[in-house]
Specification:
With 104 residues, the chain is mostly beta strands. Helix content is 4%, strand content 32%. β1 and β2 form a beta hairpin. It is flat and about 45 Å long.
């Protein structure tokens, strides 16, 4: 039996298409860029690697499926710079995947 990778069309992903949606986080003065990337030729979606899933006001995160980057952004002259530290009044969460040995 063949795997999904065996059935997929051969594509070297020569060109890319990115969709960026900038959201205002209500009542915080902060912004988040949600980014999706796919191959412009075959349409396959790309996953973001090396980031935790969730949402955080000062650190990039990804969606649970890994296909959406959620990156906090700010204007160049923003008065409440993230360099001064994260706004702890903004709720954040991180999703941690545990194996069967860690079931609670």
């Amino acid at each position: 039996m063949s795997s999904p990778a065996d059935r997929a069309p051969l594509c070297e992903h020569p060109d890319f298409q990115a969709v960026v949606i900038v959201n205002r986080i209500e009542d915080t003065g902060r912004f988040v860029a949600d980014v999706h990337v796919r191959c412009a030729k075959c349409g396959v979606r790309f996953k973001w690697l090396g980031l935790a899933a969730g949402l955080h006001p000062a650190e990039p995160r990804v969606s649970v499926d890994g296909f959406e980057l959620r990156a906090p952004i700010e204007p160049d002259a923003h008065l409440t710079s993230l360099m001064a530290g994260p706004d702890t009044s903004f709720p954040s969460f991180t999703i941690v995947q545990r194996g069967p040995d860690h079931a609670e």
